[in-house]
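Deliverable D2.4 — example input (structure tokens):
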């Protein structure tokens, strides 16, 4: 459907924005007014969707409290105009607006709307919780620029872009930014294990705050969580005082590191595995070139078998053992 989307500050927003939220959230969904109207409205950008004849039909808002993260919320379409693709058009407009400025988008989704957001590159990142009496989950997109580009260039369009276990397309990369976005998107959806093989734990690639947070979240998820780091050279870990080392010390049973044993056959290219579906593969230890798969159990199984052989033959790090506390 042909619609226009207009952007406003709260101070200049027309009454239509408040009226649509009042109709959908307060009246239809019985959200208490004191929860619907909050201080965030003052700092957010507000979006109004109108038909060609200027009839207002939908709203949303977006704001940022962190340099790299934007939050999408209060998306609502009037009942008479649902099921026409207007909500998806609004969401993709918000992703497009944020793609060049932010590396992460977050939102709180009502449980029934999870598939709607998954179609635009978001994945669930929390357990189910109650908000104003309605079941919700937190969702995020760790590669908004890639998700935005996929809308226009993928034919036919991907139904669930970058969703672990669902998206069977191969995502190619030839730059460090695209590589890290795909790596975070794969690792961030792991529910049980991340296995990483590389020459070393490059500081700029693996000691980034977001990647450390993803590793930490998985390691703390449950007692069967497993992060395995398999590398050739551990000296940079000591030299740069990697924060991942501190994570290993706090969670020694969940995050383990071993060194390659050169007396046994080893892979000559790095890779990351997430659960039994996700893979990030580089063609070279020294270049950000390769591909990511989000649903390739066959290939992941082969790499997992290779990883397990190298892991079983691996050695503990003397450098880390001798590092002073």
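Example output (designed residues):
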């Amino acid at each position: 459907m042909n619609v226009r989307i207009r952007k406003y500050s709260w101070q200049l927003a027309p009454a239509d924005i408040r009226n649509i939220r009042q109709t959908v959230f307060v009246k239809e969904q019985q959200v208490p007014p004191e929860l619907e109207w909050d201080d965030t409205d003052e700092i957010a950008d507000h979006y109004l969707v109108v038909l060609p004849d200027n009839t207002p039909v939908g709203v949303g808002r977006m704001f940022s409290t962190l340099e790299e993260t934007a939050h999408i919320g209060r998306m609502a379409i009037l009942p008479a105009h649902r099921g026409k693709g207007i909500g998806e058009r609004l969401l993709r407009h918000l992703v497009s607006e944020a793609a060049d400025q932010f590396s992460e988008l977050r939102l709180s989704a009502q449980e029934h709307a999870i598939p709607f957001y998954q179609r635009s590159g978001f994945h669930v990142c929390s357990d189910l919780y109650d908000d104003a009496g309605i079941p919700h989950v937190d969702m995020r997109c760790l590669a908004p620029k890639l998700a935005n580009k996929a809308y226009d260039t993928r034919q036919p369009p991907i139904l669930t872009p970058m969703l672990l276990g669902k998206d069977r397309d191969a995502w190619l990369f030839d730059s460090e930014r695209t590589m890290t976005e795909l790596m975070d998107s794969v690792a961030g959806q792991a529910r049980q294990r991340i296995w990483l093989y590389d020459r070393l734990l490059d500081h700029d690639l693996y000691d980034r705050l977001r990647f450390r947070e993803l590793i930490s979240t998985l390691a703390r998820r449950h007692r069967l969580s497993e992060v395995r780091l398999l590398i050739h050279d551990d000296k940079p870990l000591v030299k740069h005082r990697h924060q991942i080392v501190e994570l290993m010390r706090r969670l020694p049973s969940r995050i383990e590191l071993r060194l390659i044993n050169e007396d046994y056959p080893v892979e000559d290219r790095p890779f990351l595995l997430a659960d039994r579906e996700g893979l990030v593969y580089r063609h070279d230890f020294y270049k950000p070139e390769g591909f990511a798969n989000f649903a390739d159990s066959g290939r992941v199984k082969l790499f997992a078998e290779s990883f397990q052989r190298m892991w079983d033959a691996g050695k503990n790090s003397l450098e880390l053992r001798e590092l002073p506390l």
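The chain has a mean pLDDT of 93.
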